[in-house]
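User: Here's a protein and a ligand (zinc ion). What would the complex look like?
Assistant: Let me lay out the input and then the predicted complex.
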Amino acid sequence: MTARPTRCPTCKKPATKDGNKLFPFCSERCHLLDLGRWLNEDYRVPEAPESAGGAAPSSSPSTDEES
Ligand SMILES: [Zn+2]
């Protein structure tokens, strides 16, 4: 089993796993940087086409003859 160091996704430096709560990040700074970048670029909620058609019968027409 060869020692294959995991690289920090932010700075590409080898990150140690031992006692590292932020693994695979090498430091808290890199962790926050990656998190912020992820939030800004990728994490986007797609707009739900709520008012797209308008031809959606939500309720069936009830009988109006109640007299
Ligand atoms: Zn790093």
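Summary: Residues 6-40 form one domain.
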